[in-house]
Amino acid sequence: MKKKANAEGEHSIVLQVLKDRRKKILSTGLSVKNELWDENEHCFKTRHPNAMQNNRLLDTLKIKARNIISDFNIDDVDFTLQEFEHRFRFGSKRSKIDLFSFWTSVVNDLEISGRTGYARTNKDTINSLKLFHKKPILYMREINVTFLDKYEVFLRSRGGSNGGISVRMRSLRTIFNLAVRRDLIKQHIYPFHKYKISKLKGKRIKHALNLAEIETFKTLDCGEDIQLINAKNYFLFSFYTRGMNFADMMRLTWSDISNKRITYARAKTQGNFSIKIVPPVKEILDYYNQNRTDTNYVFPILLNDRMTPTQIENRKHKTLGLYNKSLKILAEKAGITKNVTSYVARHSFAMCLREKGVSIDVIGETLGHQSVLTTKAYVREFGAEVLDEAVEVLLW
Question: Which of 260, 228, 267, 261 lies closest to 244 in space, CA to CA?
Fold first, then answer.
């Protein structure tokens, strides 16, 4: 029984599970006034009007908890309290796992850990599935190849592209993989053995600017329009820093810059980068150094040094939208018909290096593509000087 009483003077009855000197508190949905609770026997006193019914429920919950622990022990699983909670909340029968409840708990964990961008993607997919399913509960055993095919048709009917549908399906597959790993569902109901997300990979045209277009972009006159000035600077900074993405630029601080180099860890892969500051980058850094804000951030994107993960994600979403709109205006001013977005700077960097004859292996490493087998084979062979030279060829 919890010590703190509610407004009616009743205390919540909870189930406490202890493991490895840690505890998990689970609500029973019952509450009672202090004088009607037997603290020694942990049950409702007989003079409580619903004593028999409530005590029977408590016994059932205790037996359920013991059975779950016993099942884990029989399967020789060194379970965590979180895994116990999932099994307790969603039922000991794996086939009765509600996808929405399980997925929402995962999203909550992502938000607590600060992975707000990933949490947002998962929330969007949950909402999309709820719109398709039209029911508050969706058991994981209900999701089979037919279900996924129909969901795909639903997404296409709402204007979904292969890329967008792939994002939804990969989010769903990740949740299924997590449920399997936590022993919440059995492998035989896993639908992605037959439904292949790889079929959604189309030959997407990756837009990139060539060296001549980059030069045209550099000479654009933005007047006094601060949005256009920032967009131009962000794009060129990304281009000349090996395709640094917007999220990493946003978090870049003045303390990351020393000895004529920029050193940072890429948020997406946690790979460490050390980049020589070439003249175009120095010019941009000098501009923002002269117009410093009250923060330690290089670029005027994050408003202060103490923003929460949610505030940072919201700010990124808003600013990135304005950035991409400004890039379209700049492309039109430059006479560039390609669809220029923030990510085009990264593609342009790679394509321009290739245009200058730099090897694919060096390009792969400058971009941080350590997951590519051909790149991994050369990771230890390229030093910082080789990579610096690879960027500097863009200046000639």
Answer: 267
- The domains found in the chain, sorted by start residue, are 10-90 (no CATH), 94-200 (1.10.150), 211-395 (1.10.443.10)
Task: Give the number of other Cβ atoms within 10 Å of residue 131's Cβ.
Answer: 10
pLDDT one-digit tens code per residue, 278-308: 999 999 999 999 988 889 999 999 988 888 8
CA 262 – CA 258 distance, rounded (Å)? 7
What element of type H or E holds 155?
helix 145-157
Q: Using one digit for the tens of pLDDT, what is the confidence trace for 241-284?
A: 988 989 899 999 999 998 889 988 877 666 788 889 999 999 99
Q: Quickly state the pLDDT bin for 115 (edges 50, 70, 90).
A: confident
Task: Tell me how far apart the alpha carbons of residues 246 and 267 are, in angstroms, rounded to a whole number.
Answer: 10
Residue type at 117?
Answer: G
Q: CA-to-CA distance for 118 and 342, rounded, in angstroms?
A: 19
Rounded to whole angstroms, how far apart are CA atoms 265 and 271?
A: 5
